[in-house]
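Quick one, tokens below. Sequence please?
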């Protein structure tokens, strides 16, 4: 067995860019909100301005336009909500709801035997859905996907929900940062450990699908 077949999940998935980018506009909102005497319009404007600059930077460095547009749309939507409701904590409402939806989606994917961790890794490795033909990989991806459900999404929903309910705007901004890349890195490491623990010693690894019918 080579080291290549047992490369870490972090090496396969790579990059922290998306998680970091997701925490910058919320931080800008909190800073702008505080600096302008808890002014929601100023906070919203700061978040959108930072998101635009960040998007332009990513595009200039060859980033995908679709990812930039989606990120910017999320910030604009959050800004519109908070301006409409007049409650600063509502800037984080979309983030809370998106984590609820993501947690439910990941859990459902495991139940129907299409664990999303397998879907993501399969796409990254160019396997598409071939990994589902290997019952060992299917079981391993299912177990590891539960780590994402509980360690990432359930934890975020619990923290964001409690802080949003109590109106802790600054704490929400801090939580958004702490529960972005640091939590993603922890989740990737933990799910990778579970994933490889579920593979027998003689299994060739994620890049090789066993029990695949010959074409």
């Amino acid at each position: 067995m080579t080291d290549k077949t047992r490369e870490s999940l972090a090496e396969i998935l790579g990059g922290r860019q998306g998680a970091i980018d997701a925490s910058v506009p919320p931080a800008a909102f909190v800073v702008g909100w505080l600096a302008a005497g808890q002014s929601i319009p100023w906070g919203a404007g700061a978040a959108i301005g930072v998101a635009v600059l960040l998007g332009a930077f990513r595009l200039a460095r060859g980033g995908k336009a679709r990812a930039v547009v989606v990120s910017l749309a999320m910030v604009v939507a959050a800004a519109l909500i908070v301006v409409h409701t007049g409650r600063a904590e509502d800037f984080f409402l979309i983030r809370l709801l998106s984590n609820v939806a993501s947690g439910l989606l990941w859990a459902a994917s495991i139940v129907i035997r299409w664990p999303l961790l397998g879907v993501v890794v399969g796409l990254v490795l160019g396997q598409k859905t071939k990994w589902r033909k290997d019952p060992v990989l299917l079981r391993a991806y299912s177990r590891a996907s539960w780590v994402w459900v509980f360690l990432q999404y359930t934890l975020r929903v619990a923290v964001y929900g409690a802080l949003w309910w109590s109106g802790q705007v600054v704490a929400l901004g801090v939580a958004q940062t702490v529960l972005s890349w640091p939590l993603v890195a922890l989740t990737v490491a933990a799910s990778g450990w579970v994933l490889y623990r579920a593979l027998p010693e003689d299994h060739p690894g994620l890049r090789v699908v066993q029990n695949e019918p010959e074409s």
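The chain has one domain: 3-197. Residues 3-197 form one domain.
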